[in-house]
Amino acid sequence: MVDECSPSSTRPARPLHLTVDVYEQLKDKITPNGFTLERAIQSGVDNPDSGVGLYAGDEECYSVFGPLFDAVIEDYHGGYKPSDKHVSDLDAAKLKGTVDPEGKYVLSTRIRVGRNIRGLGLSPGCSRAQRREVESLVTKGLANLKGDLAGKYFPLNGMSEADRKQLVADHFLFKKGDRFLESAGANRDWPEGRGIFHNNEKTFLVWVNEEDQMRIISMQSGGDAKQVFERLVRGISAIEEQVKAAGREFAHNDHLGYIHSCPTNCGTGMRASVHVQLPKVGAHPNFKKWCAKLRLQPRGIHGEHSESDGGVYDLSNKERLGKSEVQLVQTMIDGVNTLIAAEKALAEGKPLPSELQ
Ligand SMILES: Nc1ncnc2c1ncn2[C@@H]1O[C@H](COP(=O)(O)OP(=O)(O)OP(=O)(O)O)[C@@H](O)[C@H]1O
């Protein structure tokens, strides 16, 4: 779905990184895949309300247009420098505790990562043939998944409107292409090549050829983030095996971690979220400040930029780069538990947890 590359009216204004000098330096450059600066910035140009407004059409954009991407990444990812290294850690055993151990506040937990295949264009620069290749490679791999991960692929092409709407309403499927991805060129040939894979229980899902070639998702009711993470990691490994068996690999490097079309997702590409009932905390004037302090991102429950419904919020880790997956899931677990403690304190007229004071 849309991400921080796309809009936010609430986000503070960011400095302008596309200066005249940077523009002059980069305007005639072109990646080996044929992607230009003009295409990378098109979404931001068309949509002045973009949060970042910059997309990569291939992995090489991050080096060919380095002076612009580096500046945006440093700004967005809290001072992350071109010399910094990103380290991944997918060891679920290291997670401590669970979200909402009493089971009173959290409705569901979901963790997603993005993955793209090296050598095949990222969504804004993916040709029709490449998109078909991604779909074919990924769905062949998914068909080999075993046990609780096994499931079926449902292409968007040919899916009834009623089924599509139901999958979106049930929080399983991405919405129809938005104006930010449209301007970025990521919605070309829609809906061809796009689709969703899910297991029978709809606890393991893969979105194919949306904002990234793959969004790999694990979700379930309740707050057992460890179980959700563990399933996700098994899913990622199984898919990676299939990608390798096809003679390909995920786009990845030591500096940017996993490469994504939106620079805000580089690193882990991970968003670990809960849908959690926090009517008092959510209505508190300090809610956004508390989320920022706990390094959480609040959203409404129908995806980014939707509003809260009945005091239920989508809370997730805000950072993606420079911290490992384990660290980010732990940030979400600890932060949400602090807000749950605040919800109880507000209901009982007791002092707020020390982390929020
Ligand atoms: N913890 C959760 N439980 C149930 N559904 C969830 C949860 N977190 C997110 N969702 C649902 O997943 C769908 C996609 O959400 P959303 O677009 O906000 O995020 P995303 O998939 O992480 O991608 P992006 O950040 O690129 O927008 C929405 O329907 C949303 O309600």
TrEMBL record:
SUPFAM superfamilies: Glutamine synthetase/guanido kinase, Guanido kinase N-terminal domain. ATP binds at residues 108-112, 171, 215, 271-275, 299-304. One of its GO terms (cellular component) is extracellular space. Keywords: ATP-binding, Kinase, Nucleotide-binding, Transferase. It holds the Pfam family ATP-gua_PtransN. InterPro entries: ATP-guanido_PTrfase, ATP-guanido_PTrfase_cat, ATP-guanido_PTrfase_N, ATP-guanido_PTrfase_N_sf, Gln_synth/guanido_kin_cat_dom. GO terms for biological process: phosphocreatine biosynthetic process. Residues 1-78 form the Phosphagen kinase N-terminal domain. Residues 105-346 form the Phosphagen kinase C-terminal domain. Signal peptide: none annotated. GO terms for molecular function: ATP binding; creatine kinase activity; kinase activity. PANTHER family: ARGININE KINASE 1-RELATED, ARGININE OR CREATINE KINASE. Belongs to the ATP:guanido phosphotransferase family. This is Arginine kinase. It comes from Monosiga brevicollis. The lineage of its organism: Eukaryota, Choanoflagellata, Craspedida, Salpingoecidae, Monosiga.
